[in-house]
Q: What sequence folds into this?
């Protein structure tokens, strides 16, 4: 019997600081994840945590990690070459098959751009799907903007709105909460549009409301939940909401189902 | 095969099985109880049948013999991962019908839910033999009949302890091998409880009315519950655990273990995430979460209720919260809700 708790020993082969508290790690872990999946990352003696996959390629994955807890703070103090342990990928991914012939709006808040980054790049790599993709990101302030250079490249391929919560600052993007700008997204045909909304709980709640005002049906809105997915394999119980295990039935959930999940 | 054994004859079977199979059942630990000069009843290995007690309910369920309170998941030794050996010591468990049902509830989580079977649970489970103890007269707080768990056909051996010995019914090849030649043939019929003193109404809904999630009744539990988690640890079906890394004392070089420990949805920190986010900060919301899991959402996922009506949570609650009563209150509220709509 396979032991699902056993991680693979890996190395950090790259570290790209994104902000003061977020770094994108490249790790020599071979897997073929789907967009929106996560891995369990650990350091011996420190612990293990679920982290979204923000990039992958031949023989490596990328993880954009914010120093928020015991493990992640320790990870940001690591250097290239250090050992790191990975298992996964886990979880239910974004439904790429449904998206392939559809118009897609992706809204992400803060470090939740990480779980949609691979989906964005896959959409924008193909000029046809790039044309049918719109992006909107919200960050706390200009210093918190992730993937700054990459966003500039994305802007050359499609319409990208970037806003910061901080109303007072002056910068080369918009100001105000992401919800204020949903009305400005060019959505030619809401009936054949899907929306992906990922971010803090409050952001997801109010952003989905704005998208339903734009006539996108609940059945075409997709969210990704953040919960304490300690095992990632449907055993430990920490992430359960109603009869849904977020680690295996999510983290990507259709909005009409997500609405029924009351913690 | 039905037989009668004297305790001495049963003890010699236990001796023959020494080193092959340990026998675990309810025993009294004198003066280890919660109050001064009170006793504690727990599942413990026994070598003398006379040590088993059948007129007291155990404080904790026997689940720790398939799902350890703390268990090692893996070891990190000099940068490599080492899996601990799987524990496969044969265990024969003297338990009641409710606790056998409870083990089946754990099977759903550990063996079937999610991506893979849990190898540590599977190893202990595969080497577990179930000895059903007849339970014709349930304890005061039991509500197995309401939960449909007072009867089971899943056992290797059934016993009826009486003065001087026990009637046995060998129902599996293991039982026939171990007990088939002990004592004398003797016919008897296993009895099951027909009713409980504790009358509970169990809701049957598969679509919980949303207003039940915010019903005022949960606020009462916010005032009474102290989030000690005794209900979780005494419950035979609570399966949640937390994972932590710990250094191994005295080990040479970098050597740490990744372990798991029982956790419970009533306990502080259960949903904490890095950065400080958490859900169900109110204790009443935790009571609601546990209640719905035990009598509603587990059933939606696995086809039957998780709670087996053993009543231990009611026995151990320091605030005298009755889970049995809570179930009936939920059923009444659902009825009201359906009448209104």
A:
């Amino acid at each position: 019997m396979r032991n699902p708790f056993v991680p693979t020993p890996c190395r950090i082969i790259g570290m790209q600081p994104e902000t003061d508290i977020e770094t994108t790690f490249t790790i020599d872990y071979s897997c073929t994840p789907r967009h929106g999946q996560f891995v369990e990352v650990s350091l011996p003696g420190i612990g293990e945590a679920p982290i979204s996959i923000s990039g992958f390629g031949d023989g490596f994955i990328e993880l954009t990690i914010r120093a928020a807890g015991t493990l992640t703070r320790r990870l940001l103090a690591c250097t290239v070459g250090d050992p790191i342990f990975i298992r996964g990928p886990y979880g239910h991914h974004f439904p790429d098959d449904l998206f392939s012939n559809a118009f897609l709006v992706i809204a992400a808040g803060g470090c939740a751009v990480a779980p949609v980054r691979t989906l964005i790049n896959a959409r924008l790599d193909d000029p046809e799907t790039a044309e049918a993709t719109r992006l909107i990101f919200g960050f706390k302030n200009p210093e918190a903007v992730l993937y700054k250079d990459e966003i500039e490249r994305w802007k050359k391929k499609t319409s990208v709105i970037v806003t910061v919560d901080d109303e007072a600052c002056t910068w080369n993007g918009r100001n105000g909460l992401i919800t204020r700008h949903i009305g400005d997204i060019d959505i030619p045909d809401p009936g054949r549009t899907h929306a992906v909304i990922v971010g803090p709980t409050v952001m997801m709640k109010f952003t989905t409301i704005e998208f339903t005002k734009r006539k996108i049906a609940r059945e075409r809105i997709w969210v990704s939940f953040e919960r304490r997915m300690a095992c990632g394999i449907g055993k430990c119980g920490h992430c359960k909401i109603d009869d849904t295990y977020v680690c295996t039935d999510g983290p990507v959930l259709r909005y009409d189902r997500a609405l029924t999940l009351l913690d | 095969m039905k037989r009668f054994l004297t305790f001495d004859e049963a003890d010699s079977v236990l001796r023959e099985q020494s080193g092959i199979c340990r026998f675990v059942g309810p025993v009294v630990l004198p003066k280890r109880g919660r109050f001064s000069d009170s006793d504690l009843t727990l599942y413990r290995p026994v070598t003398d049948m006379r040590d088993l007690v059948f007129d007291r309910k155990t404080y904790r369920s026997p689940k720790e013999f398939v799902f350890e309170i703390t268990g090692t998941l893996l070891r990190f030794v000099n940068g490599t991962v080492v899996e601990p050996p799987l524990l496969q010591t044969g265990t024969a468990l003297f338990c009641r019908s409710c606790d056998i049902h409870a083990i089946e509830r754990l099977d759903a989580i550990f063996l079937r839910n999610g991506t893979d079977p849990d190898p540590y649970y599977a190893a202990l489970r595969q080497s577990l033999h179930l000895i059903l103890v007849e339970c014709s007269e349930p304890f005061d707080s039991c509500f197995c009949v309401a939960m449909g768990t007072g009867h089971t056909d899943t056992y290797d051996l059934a016993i009826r302890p009486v003065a001087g010995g026990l009637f046995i019914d060998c129902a599996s090849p293991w039982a026939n091998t171990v007990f088939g030649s002990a004592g004398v043939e003797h016919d008897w019929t296993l009895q099951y409880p027909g009713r409980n003193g504790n009358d509970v109404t169990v809701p049957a809904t598969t679509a919980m009315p949303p207003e039940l999630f915010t019903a005022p009744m949960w606020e009462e539990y916010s005032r009474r519950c102290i989030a000690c988690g005794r209900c979780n640890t005494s419950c035979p079906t609570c399966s949640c655990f937390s994972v932590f890394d710990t250094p191994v004392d005295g080990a040479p070089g970098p050597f740490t273990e990744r372990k798991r420990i029982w956790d419970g949805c009533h306990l502080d920190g259960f949903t904490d995430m890095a950065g400080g986010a958490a859900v169900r900060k109110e204790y009443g919301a935790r009571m609601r979460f546990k209640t719905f899991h035990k009598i509603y959402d587990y059933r939606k996922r696995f086809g039957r209720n998780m709670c087996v009506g053993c009543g231990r949570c009611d026995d151990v609650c320091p605030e005298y919260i009755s889970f049995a009563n809570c179930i009936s209150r939920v059923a009444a509220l659902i009825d009201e809700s359906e009448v209104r709509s």
User: Anything to note?
Assistant: Chain B has a mean pLDDT of 94. Chain B touches chain A through 51 residues (CB under 8 Å). Chain B has ten helices and twelve strands. The two ends of chain B are 55 Å apart (CA to CA).
